[in-house]
Amino acid sequence: MNPDFRKSMIWLHTYSGLVLGWLLFTIFLTGSLSYFNPEISQWMKPELVKVTSAQNLTNQSLEKLHKLAVDADSWRIILPNERTQHWSLQWNYGRERHNLSLGANYDQVITPRDTEGGNFFRIFHHSLQLRGYGGRYIVGVAAMVMLVIVFSGIFTHRRLFREFFTLRLGKLLKTLTDFHALAGLVTIPFCIMICSSGIMIYAIMYIPFSADHFSGGQRELSRALSPGLIEIDKNAPSQIPLRDFGVVQREIENHWQGNNQIRRITFEKPFSQDGRIVVDRIKNLTISKQPERLVFSSYDGKPLQGYVEASNATRVRRVFFGLHEAHFADIRLRWLLFLLGLLSSTLIATGLIIWLKKRLIKIEKPQLGYFLVERLNIAVIGGLPLAIVAFFLSNRLLPKLLEDRATLEVQVFFLTWLVCLFLSLFRPAKKAWVELLLASALGCYLLPIIDLYQDSERLKDAILEVNSVYLTFALFILFMGFVFMKSACWLRAKDTAYEYSNNGTKKRC
Amino acid sequence: MLVSITLQTFGLLCLSLAMDKHFKSAFQMPLTKQLKFLLKFLGWFVTGLSVCCLFLFVQPVSIAIVQWMGFLSANILLVSLIHCRLALKTK
Question: Which residue among A55, A200, A476, B3 has the highest number of C-beta atoms inside a 10 angstrom radius?
């Protein structure tokens, strides 16, 4: 290989990784959590009870909607599935949206606490809470740079393939370098898939001039590529929507074999003669983001003409979208993808730590750049997990009826992260690492205890109903507490790390 | 799927043992040329077989490919940890 080429690749890998490392770590960690979006939401709304999908849930939902949502513009029935176990109804009057969560019994209306749930991580992952302020563009650029980092990394680590399957334990720097190379190798397919699919999701946004040229705008291009159903005539005579879903159910069974194939039922203009029912199939049968859909008349249940076939470009984009969100994944694959996401985050974190450690060993005089990298490493790698734990804690500790509760939870997340940044700036590095890790561990241990203290029935019910979502969350959070505590103890016992003291001199600690 | 994943793990283990360093730390003896060829052949053959199993028995294939790739990453990590453990024992 041309030595100049390799040098260029090393430079590219090092500095693109350094500049965007913290952002990439944040995106990857929150993205990994997003694999369990419905499960996290379920845990954050403990008022929701387990509902098993059954045939008569649809008719019971229709009965309820006939009572509560007369003359609504749309109805939606979201049926429970393996992941959410949440039965909910929605209806709209223009832009005014109503939600109703139902319990195991038809008459049991549940009012879950106001929270963003797991959706916060999903939104933060793809827009950094900066939707409308360029957040999605920043994330898109980060994904493109990550691809550059992955490919340049293959050329940077000279013995990447010669030292395949190698992880040497011993000196910290050597172990970290080996782990970085190994994690990089293991996550190459995952990182390429996740970054390219992430870019594809907002491809139209990233090529605005082409969108303008071909269709006159981004929305127009989206519409042209995946046309929807024809618009319903607003002046059509009114008609009472069907009460018995059996007619539609029989038709659906002819198309989709197997039990519990319906994920969502949407009534568009239910009180119009031209109204229609759109039935969405469950997502775990296709890799595409868009599962199969069937369309029926809303008052007699007769099949109507469905969606026209999407263009090839749209189908490819939907496959990338589906791959990114992995709705098709069963629980085993979901955990695997989640762990690969965590491994990718660790890959980025080790890269940042290696960069700093290699330079701290060599230099004598303190430099502002290294100081900043060190403190940002602490604030992001150590601080983000603590902010996440604080977000979960706020979900349990904030009063249920507090106004704007969901926003407050998000504010707790950001405030905790800000505190971590200040702590990293004003505390000696090693102490700051240890303190943040210990605080995260403490938070993880406190979560199940608080949960038990607030309502001991919760755990009992979860065990009796085999509520795997609740139990797995509790066990995982305890495991993470153990990991944080072990890391803090290991770091405290270690005495070879270099750091800058607050007066700017370098010292061993 | 289980058969495919097991074959994949075995294939990767063979391929890792076809490397001088890992073979030596596992068996405390040098790797001969014949054995290296045999392990390499067996490793690639079994890994290929795991892909065939996947296409023959797992449906839908698109999801199965994602699963296979996911488990490939996990298995590389697993085999590396096994060798790390073996190297520690040898020390």
Answer: A200
